[in-house]
Amino acid sequence: MNKKIKEHFQRVDLILYSVIERIEYLEPWKSKSANEYFVELCANIIGQQLSGKAADTIFARFEKLFAKKKITPEKVLRIPDQKIRDAGMAWSKVKYIKDLAQKTLDKTLDLSKLTNMTDGDVLTELTKVKGIGPWTAEMFLMFTLGREDVFSHGDLGLKNAIKKLYGFKKDPSKKQVEKIVNKWSPYRTFACRILWKSLEI
């Protein structure tokens, strides 16, 4: 994390800054290229409501269904549903990935245009796909498009980290969370990464 961003958090939120001071390392992070968007969305769908380790295991099995591990919408549609299900995915996720593949192919969802869209337009575009809700779209904004100012109110880890760090006795309301989160702008994505990391230390 660069000096400018650290100084921003030091200025606006000393509680979050104290966590930054305790974090030894934050993994390098950059946006992905447009030809990776489809695979990233498949991974995001697979990862819904799963631990990182479980999601990685299932994605690795899913990847093995493709020659040279090259996942494309055309190939997804050709693979029988049962075969994808056997990789460890819930039936609902099989349907979501097939719907993503179909909408990508028929250009209902034009992945190549996402790079230049606003965060709000990306959310609107992605949620056209069955099974892609705000959380999945927000993870895509953060980790695939590399957007710096995104916060996910639907993420349980972020909610738990805020509850722990800011001394809430019960789950904070959206309004309470927003009061804390809004001052982090324009670096809310970095704040999310710090919050997730705080659960490990």
Write the layout of secondary structure elements.
Blueprint: H1 3-12, H2 14-22, H3 37-46, H4 52-63, H5 73-78, H6 81-85, H7 91-105, H8 119-126, H9 134-143, H10 156-165, H11 174-181, H12 188-198
Domain HhH-GPD: 46-200
InterPro entries: Alkylbase_DNA_Glycosylase/TA, DNA_glycosylase, HhH-GPD_domain, Hlx-hairpin-Hlx_DNA-bd_motif
Keywords: DNA damage, DNA repair
Number of strands: 0
What does the radius of gyration come to? 18 Å
Total helix count? 12
In what range is the share of β-strand residues? under 5%
Task: Please write the string of helix (H) and strand (E) elements.
Answer: HHHHHHHHHHHH
Number of domains as seen in the coordinates: 2
Helix content: 55-70%
Major sheet size, sense and barrel closure: none
Class by SSE composition: mainly alpha
In whole angstroms, how far apart are the ends?
18 Å
Report the average pLDDT across residues.
94
Shape: elongated
Family: Belongs to the alkylbase DNA glycosidase AlkA family.
GO molecular function: alkylated DNA binding; DNA-3-methyladenine glycosylase activity; DNA-7-methylguanine glycosylase activity
Domain Helix-hairpin-helix DNA-binding motif class: 124-143
Catalytic activity: Hydrolysis of alkylated DNA, releasing 3-methyladenine, 3-methylguanine, 7-methylguanine and 7-methyladenine
